[in-house]
Design goal:
- This protein is 34% helix and 17% strand.
- The protein has 322 residues and is α/β, with parallel strands linked by helices.
- The strands form 3 sheets. It has a 6-stranded mixed β-sheet with strand order 6-5-4-7-8-11, with helices on both faces. The chain has a 3-stranded mixed β-sheet with strand order 1-9-10, with no helix packed on it.
- It contains 9 helices and 11 strands.
- Helix 4 runs antiparallel to helix 5 and helix 7 runs parallel beside helix 8.
- It folds into 2 domains: 269 residues, von Willebrand factor, type A domain (Rossmann fold), CATH 3.40.50; 32 residues, no CATH class.
Length: 322
C-alpha cells in the first residue's frame, strides 16, 4: 500500500479551483443553516439602531436619558444604541501540497474542507457587518456578501507555507486572524512556523488556529506493508509491517498536534481541531462564536485565556500530552 500526500498536487489544486463555484454554494448553505440560530455582536457603542433601555446611574451623560421612557416610570432610563463599527478579520487557508490528500474517496480532501469552512465563516462575518480579508498578493478585503466569490478566489491564491511567508503578513492592530491548515510544516520548520504565528498575533490581534486533519491522521487504519511518499512521489519511509510502528506513528502525531496547540497558546488564541470525516458545522459555529466576540477598547478580548480544545467526538478521541 502506498500512502502519499497527493500524486499531483498541482493538478489537484486546479481541480479544486474548477470546483470553486460548487464549494461556494456549499459554504453558503452551511452558513445559512447556522445563521438562523445566531445573534449579532450586540454591544453598546456608537450607532443609530436602538438596542435597550437601562436604569440611569450617577455619572451617565444626561443627553442619553430617554425622557419619554422615563416619564412612564418612577425611574430614569438611558437609551442605548448598538455598536455598528466594522471589525477586520483575516482568514488564511494554508493550502500546502499535503492538504490535497484524503485517505478515502468518500472523504473530502483537507484543502476542500478548509475552503468550505473559510468561505462559510467569511459569509457569516460579512453578513454581520464585518470586513473580511485574506493574505493573497492584493490583500483582498470585502464588506459585501455579493463579493464572496472574489474573496474565495483570493483565498486560493494565498501562500501555501506559514514558515516561509508568515513573517510577510501584516494584519492591522487589534484585527482578528484565522489560520487553517494541517500544519505539517511544524515537523520540518517548527521554529520558523512558531515565529510566524507569533508575528501574526502582534499588536493585540485576536485569532485562532484550526487544525484540519484526515481521520487517518488521528487513528491510522493501515496494515501490512505501507510506503510513505511525499508530494513529489518520492519515497520517504517504508514499513513492511505498519502494526510494528503504529504506536510510534501515533506518538509523533500527538506531538504534532501539541505543537499546534502550543503555537496558539503563545498568542492566547483559540486552537480548534476539525476532522474531515465530520460535519463542518460544529467547527464553523465554534469559530464564529469565538471570533465574533469583538475585542474591547483596551485590546483585550475580555475572555482571558480561551478554551484551547473543544470536546472531540468519541470516534476520534485520543489521549494526548502537551
Amino acid at each position: 500500500m502506498a500512502l502519499n500526500a497527493v500524486h499531483d498536487h498541482v493538478a489537484a489544486a486546479r481541480a479544486l479551483a474548477a470546483r470553486l463555484p460548487q464549494l461556494i454554494d456549499e459554504s453558503r448553505r452551511t452558513a445559512i443553516s447556522l445563521r438562523g440560530g445566531l445573534h449579532g455582536n450586540r454591544k453598546v457603542g456608537p450607532g443609530s439602531d436602538f438596542w435597550q433601555f437601562r436604569p440611569y446611574v450617577p455619572g451617565d451623560p444626561t443627553n442619553q436619558i430617554d425622557w419619554r421612557r422615563s416619564a412612564r416610570s418612577d425611574h430614569t432610563f438611558i437609551r442605548q444604541t448598538e455598536w455598528q463599527a466594522s471589525h477586520n478579520y483575516w482568514i488564511w487557508p494554508v493550502l500546502s501540497p499535503s492538504m490535497y490528500w484524503s485517505s478515502a474517496r468518500d472523504i473530502p480532501s483537507k484543502a476542500e474542507r478548509t475552503l468550505i469552512i473559510s468561505i462559510a465563516l467569511a459569509d457569516l462575518l460579512i453578513r454581520n457587518g464585518e470586513t473580511v480579508g485574506t493574505f493573497d498578493v492584493e490583500r483582498t478585503r470585502v464588506t459585501s456578501a455579493e463579493h464572496l466569490e472574489k474573496l474565495a478566489h483570493a483565498m486560493l491564491a494565498t501562500p501555501p507555507s506559514i514558515a516561509e511567508q508568515g513573517l510577510n503578513m501584516h494584519p492591522g492592530r487589534k484585527h482578528s486572524v484565522l489560520v487553517l491548515g494541517d500544519f505539517l510544516e511544524f515537523a520540518d520548520h517548527g521554529t520558523q512556523t512558531r515565529n510566524a504565528i507569533r508575528h501574526l498575533g502582534q499588536y493585540q490581534n485576536d485569532g485562532a488556529l484550526v487544525h484540519i486533519l484526515d481521520p487517518a491522521e488521528i487513528s491510522p487504519p493501515f496494515q501490512g506493508r505501507v510506503n510513505f511518499l511525499d508530494s513529489n512521489d518520492t519515497l520517504i519511509f517504508k514499513s513492511e509491517k505498519f502494526e510494528d510502528i503504529a504506536e510510534g506513528f501515533k506518538s509523533r502525531a500527538q506531538k504534532w498536534r501539541a505543537d499546534v496547540r502550543d503555537a496558539a497558546r503563545q498568542n492566547d488564541w483559540l486552537c480548534d481541531r476539525h476532522v474531515t470525516s465530520e460535519s463542518a458545522s460544529p467547527t464553523l459555529l465554534a469559530l464564529y462564536q469565538h471570533l465574533s466576540e469583538r475585542p474591547n477598547q483596551s485590546g483585550s478580548n475580555g475572555r482571558g485565556r480561551p478554551n484551547l480544545n473543544r470536546p472531540i467526538p468519541d470516534g476520534h478521541k485520543t489521549q494526548e500530552t502537551s
